[in-house]
Design goal:
Blueprint (H helix, E strand, L loop, with lengths): L15 H4 E5 L4 E4 L2 E6 L5 E5 L3 E11 L8 E8 L10 E7 L8 E7 L14 E3 L10 E7 L3 E6 L2 E7 L12 E8 L19 E14 L21 H13 L1 E4 L16
Antiparallel strand pairs: 1-4, 2-3, 3-14, 4-13, 5-10, 5-14, 6-7, 6-13, 7-8, 8-9, 9-15, 10-11, 11-12
Length: 272
């Protein structure tokens, strides 16, 4: 389903070291012609971070996932300011939840504001999707646009989720850094922890290339807006983009936190 607009083509790709650095597990990373391969084994996973923080912007990369048994393993691209605000940080996530042979990967998007983890109650805003292709066969582009009005998640330039700014209390406003990582989340990643990482299948590998990183600097004026990621200067999607997003949500959305009757929606007022 064509979205009719392709934000990933609006920005030049950058070399990994132009925008990023190793964060942990350097012995589990390899860079070859701007394709980053990193892996998890029993000794360690690996992660990278952007050199600078941004306040609003477009981030993206092409990712190829590992086939076979990957239960318990998270491969991710996300924005966070956890190091600046431990215990009350903001985060916007694109996460691939590992799986078992014969079952498709789950792509999870999530937004958390001022205080998940570190002893505080985790307030998740998860939407989970199956994909309309096999993400292990080739590289596909995954990206997110964080603007003053909304956050939009993209897969191959198709918008899959729009998270609007309904109030300052439910929207991340403080500068964040970009992160990518591969790590063991056996306690919850695959069918709520039913299947865990099995290191007989190690190493678990993720490959990233075609890095995109653009946005307002942390000290930019509030009026700064990454306008070129969307057709309209004021933000928002075209009718064709909305139709493409509706197609994804009608056919590939498998979990929406706002529709989960077991969740306390008083903690997520944007659901109303």
């Amino acid at each position: 389903f064509s979205p009719g607009y392709y934000p990933s083509t609006k920005f030049k790709s950058i070399g990994f070291f132009q925008g990023f650095r190793n964060l942990w597990g350097p012995q589990h990373q390899r860079l070859d012609q701007n394709t980053l391969t990193f892996w998890l084994d029993k000794s360690s996973g690996s992660g990278f971070t952007s050199i600078r923080s941004i306040r609003y912007g477009y981030i993206g990369t092409a990712i190829k996932l590992q086939p076979g048994y990957t239960a318990g393993v998270i491969t991710s691209l996300y924005l966070s300011n956890n190091e600046a605000y431990p215990g009350h940080h903001d985060e916007i996530d694109i996460e691939f939840l590992g799986t078992i042979p014969g079952k498709a990967y789950t792509l999870q998007t999530n937004v958390s504001i001022k205080g998940s983890g570190d002893g505080n109650k985790i307030i998740g805003r998860e939407h989970q999707f199956r994909l309309w292709f096999d993400p292990t066969r080739d590289f596909h582009n995954y990206g997110l646009l964080w603007s003053p009005k909304e956050t939009i998640f993209f897969v191959d330039d198709v918008p899959i989720r729009r998270y609007p700014r309904k109030s300052d209390a439910t929207f991340p406003l403080r500068p964040m850094w970009v992160f990518g990582s591969i790590w063991d989340a056996s306690s919850w990643a695959t069918e709520h922890g039913r299947y865990k990482a099995d290191y007989r299948y190690q190493p678990f590998v993720g490959k990233y290339t075609n890095f995109k990183l653009t946005g307002c600097s942390a000290n930019a004026p509030a009026s700064c807006h990454p306008v070129s990621a969307l057709p309209y200067r004021s933000g928002g999607l075209t009718n064709q983009q909305y139709s493409a997003m509706q197609w994804v949500q009608n056919n590939y959305l498998i979990y929406d936190n706002c529709k989960d009757s077991k969740r306390d929606h008083s903690l997520t007022p944007e659901c109303f």
